[in-house]
């Protein structure tokens, strides 16, 4: 589900997905409990949907697998404590293969600031050379703990307010 305060952001990102213009590395920011995780999930489902309109269709094979939490091109990494380099390498290996449903491949990294430095460096490789149709969705409520190199390669949403 999308919380009301994320509706317009989701619509904007959805338009860019349909136009094939979504940045391959998205960083979703905001305080804990804002619903970033849910937003990332919805975006992932949308990216994977084979016939998305304003919403994902919910009917296609991809949507059915996603709803059943068994989509073969969808991965998530989450850790309460620390995300290690092995977690990232494992995900990188999966992402480097062909998409099984011939659509997008999506990796969500929840609480991305819990990545160790070597995990972050491993992720940089994927951020620098994402495969065709590969999307990385990172969430964080402590972006100041992310490596500058990660920050600079991700598009931040909501965008930082200026002035
Ligand atoms: Zn669908």
TrEMBL record:
Its EC number is 2.7.7.7. One of its GO terms (biological process) is DNA-templated DNA replication. The keyword Nucleotidyltransferase applies. Gene3D superfamilies: P-loop containing nucleotide triphosphate hydrolases. InterPro entries: DNA_Rep/Repair_Clamp_Loader, P-loop_NTPase. It catalyses: DNA(n) + a 2'-deoxyribonucleoside 5'-triphosphate = DNA(n+1) + diphosphate. It holds the Pfam family DNA_pol3_delta2. One of its GO terms (molecular function) is DNA-directed DNA polymerase activity. GO terms for cellular component: DNA polymerase III complex. Keywords: DNA-directed DNA polymerase, Nucleotidyltransferase, Transferase. This is DNA-directed DNA polymerase. It comes from Lacimicrobium alkaliphilum.
